[in-house]
Amino acid sequence: MKKTFYQTLRGRIAVATSAVLAGSALLPMFLGGSASALVLTNRSLSLDKNTASTTGVTYSFSAKVPTGGSTTLGSIEVDLCDSPFLGTACAAPTGLAFSGSTLANPNPSAGTPTLGGAATGSTPNANLGTGSTAARIRVSWATPQTVTAGTTVVSFDITGVTNPSSSGTFYARIGFFSDNAYTTFTDSGAMAQSVQATQNVSFKIQETLAFCVGAMANGTVAYTPATFAAASLTNDCGQTAGTNIALGIAPDSTTACITPASAHTATCADGSTSNDDNYGYAMLSTNASFGATIGYRADTSGSYTQGTLSTAGQSCGGFAAANRDDYCINPVNLDQSVSNGTVAALVTTSSNEEFGMATPAVNQNNATTALALDSTSTGYGFTGNATGGTSCSTTGTSSAMDCWNWNRTGSDTLATATGPVDNEGLQIFFASKASITSPSGQYAVNVDYFSVPTY
């Protein structure tokens, strides 16, 4: 008998319904490898280092027991594979390895959880995969643990893992078993993770040195060493009044003129120039790890070739007491038969002729490291006064001494730092005294300063 339209339609619906029901029955097989397995939720795998080929990495696994899942947990297997599909071929990511791996931070922590093995070239549980090249991790509890479906988060760490050697994604297939022999398969799932090349961020810091020398006007920062040391100096000699310093005019043969002549020794003031209001200073900034020095030498390359105060173009026969009537001012030490570059006092008798330098103060400019002065027999770190402090000794052991120094033929160190310096200042004084036989004239000397950082 010929079927009616409605009979045909009813038959087709029945076939379609059967197909859907059959597919629904197979779905857990794809997700969990077993018709009875449920999919673990809140699955994650994290690495404490995600750079390819890195060794000593900790892999942290976490998954929640699904609602309706097994409430007994006896063992777990994780297979690290090149694909996430349970029940299919599993090959370990290239380069992934285990070395001295241990189990850490297991939850549940009761029941004596132990690492049952972590090795590549392993055969996965049939519910998780096929083949013999998986990277397999197994954890078991001597006493199977009771867990709460839909609530308990199971987690553990595996240490001593070497990451895959190629950048990209890899997968972890995870299966729960209710017994501790990896036999009774319950719930499962998969998760993804990746490794990649490091990103290198570079930054360069070059060796730095900012060194300057200038003349400080007494009206800008008062010349007293305590005032200079406490002042807020502008970086890079920003307060300089040029580079010229005038010691004024010798008022007689017993007065030592000291910078700034207009204030320090007012009788030496020279009304024709404002340079007699100046004293010298230097500033240093460097990132040299092993510090730096500040030094000087007399510049004999120009019109003033004698390495001490002289008139232009002169060539003096000597610099001792017997040479006080030529056109050179004897260095303070040589005039007293003290070695060149060794400290001596300013002698204010009419016969002595003297020129010298002192560095009475350092300005740290609120920095944590400081330039250190040299107050030894060959140093310059003294009061900057003619008299009023401790009398100068050629051993020069105290910064409170009224010592002066000058090196006519070589170079000397004025200050030293043992580490980086951040815009610190060095105060520099000069002093000169004429003898009763010193010829009239305009005397000058050029001073060449330098800094040597050690990086």
- The helical percent reads under 10%
Alpha carbon gap, first and last residue:
107 Å
Listing every helix as H and every strand as E from the N terminus to the C terminus, the arrangement reads HEEEEEEEEEEEEEHEHEEEEEEEEEE
* Individual helix count: 3
Main β sheet profile: 7 strands, mixed
What general form does the structure show?
rod-shaped
How much is the average pLDDT? Answer: 92
Cα Rg: 44 Å
- Quote the beta fraction: 35-45%
Topology summary:
Elements: H1 5-32, E1 38-39, E2 41-47, E3 57-64, E4 72-81, E5 88-91, E6 97-98, E7 103-107, E8 113-122, E9 129-146, E10 153-162, E11 168-177, E12 185-195, E13 209-217, H2 225-230, E14 257-258, H3 261-264, E15 278-286, E16 292-299, E17 344-345, E18 354-358, E19 362-363, E20 372-373, E21 403-404, E22 411-417, E23 421-433, E24 446-453
Parallel strand pairs: 1-12, 5-9
Antiparallel strand pairs: 2-3, 3-10, 4-9, 4-11, 6-10, 7-10, 8-9, 11-12, 13-15, 14-23, 15-23, 16-22, 16-24, 17-21, 18-23, 19-23, 20-22
